[in-house]
Amino acid sequence: MATNNKKPSVLIIDDNEMTRSLLRSIIQGDTYDVVGEASNGVTGLERTFKLSPDIVCLDISMPDMNGLEVLLEIKKELPQTVVLMVTASNDIETVQQAIKNGASGFIVKPFVLGTVLDTLGNAVQKLNALKSL
Amino acid sequence: MNKSRPADVNEITKTPPAIEAEFEFEAALKRLGGNQELFSRLAARFANDITPMIADFGQYLKQGDISKATLTMHTLKGLAGTIGAIRMARHAAKVELRLHTGEVAIDIDSTLNIFSVLTARTQAALMANTGTLSLEITAPPSATAPIDATTLHTMMDELDTLLRSANMRATTVFSQLENAFGVGNKQQLAALSQAINKLDFKRSLQCSQELRASIERIS
Q1: With a cut of 0.90, is the ipTM above it?
Q2: Which candidate in B57, B142, B171, B177 could, as Cys together with B134 as Cys, close a disulfide (CB 3.0–4.6 Å)?
Q3: Is residue A3 part of a domain?
Q4: Interchain CB contacts (distance < 8 Å): A and B
Q5: How many angstroms away from the CA of B192 is the closest CA of chain A?
Q6: Which sequence spans correspond to the domains of chain B?
Q7: A48, part of any domain
């Protein structure tokens, strides 16, 4: 969890291995702990429920079960989990739908290391706010 | 203001617009916090991943699976953008949009041919720009790898055959040849590169023969 000096745990859900690898390389370190990955929405949901990560980095565009559907399920079961949507799209309707479904932020491709870390920093603040409710 | 003047006249009389960059590796490296090791690792993976990704895309198009084809273009757009392969990212974005809107029909062969050229060029550029790639990528031989005269002539024969039939795979073979030559025969290689990049197969064949003649003069 984000409190008691424990590193916030992060789960990455993205169908592309390279994207997962890149995000893991950026995120894993002294500040965050990448506890798992999933390459599709269904497995992503299973791992989210099993691992209860603090933060989920969730790709919007995935085959079979897309990120918006996964997001809805996560927020239904684990409302305190902060979900950041990963996308290369700036489609306003998708963004609005993600916010409506409970997304806390967006990690936009191509990734900028500093921006990704800033977004995660904001996610931790949101996480702490949710936990203090 | 002369509003009746055709737009193309305006374009001709003024300085031509700057050619858009094809690659922005330095910007990509900067986005990754200057982490050269991470960039090289990603570049190697990307260089190896694009060929199967384009093959899958072709299959999806042929099967009429527009949803998966669109998704593949979306992924390619993001990955190419991340690695700094700007032209490929833009082209993927354009195709993704076309597939998404369904307003313009996609010519499968032509689209795959364009991606084939972009893939070969991107792989060659990534290899030229990252020191570790030649160890990981399963494409052309490295510039330092010794190559015997027979292999070189076989490659040139293959290139000529492909050029005669206007086969886009010529661009891949040319990339391999470029690496095999290293710093030698620069002038002839540059002329051939220019012709191939314009997909001028007739001129490319002439340049290839000039290159072959220059090798024979040296040996």
Answers
A1: no
A2: B142
A3: no
A4: 57
A5: 33
A6: 20-136, 149-218
A7: yes
A78-87, B35-44, B185-194 — which one is most confidently predicted on average?
A78-87
Q: Minimal CA–CA distance to A78: which of A132, A131, A13, A3?
A: A131
A92 interfaces chain B, CB cutoff of 8 Å: no
**Token pair belonging to A78:** 């684990």
CA distance A111 to chain B (A): 6
Q: What average pLDDT does this structure show over B38-42?
A: 87
At A87, the amino acid letter reads T
Confidence of residue B19 (pLDDT cuts 50, 70, 90): low
94-123 of A, contacting B, C-beta below 8 A: 109-114
Tokens 């031509």 sit at which residue?
A: B16
- Check CB contact under 8 Å for B78 and A88: yes
Those residues of chain B whose CB sits closer than 8 Å to some CB in chain A are: 28, 31-33, 35, 38, 41-42, 45-46, 49, 67-68, 71, 74-75, 77-79, 81-82, 89
C-alpha to C-alpha distance for A45 and A51, rounded to whole angstroms: 10
Contact (CB<8Å) A22/B42:
yes
Total length of chain B: 219
Report d(CA B38, CA B29) in Å as an integer: 9
Residue B144 binned pLDDT confidence (cut-offs 50, 70, 90)? very low
Domain interval for residue A16: 9-131
The structural domain count of chain A equals 1
CA distance A87 to A16: 12
Provide, as residue numbers in chain B, all residues whose Cβ is less than 8 Å from the Cβ of A28. Answer: none
The answer to whether residue A2 is domain-embedded is no
Interfacial A residues in 13-72 facing B (CB < 8 Å): 15-19, 21-22, 25-26, 61-63
Query: A60: domain CATH number?
Result: 3.40.50.2300
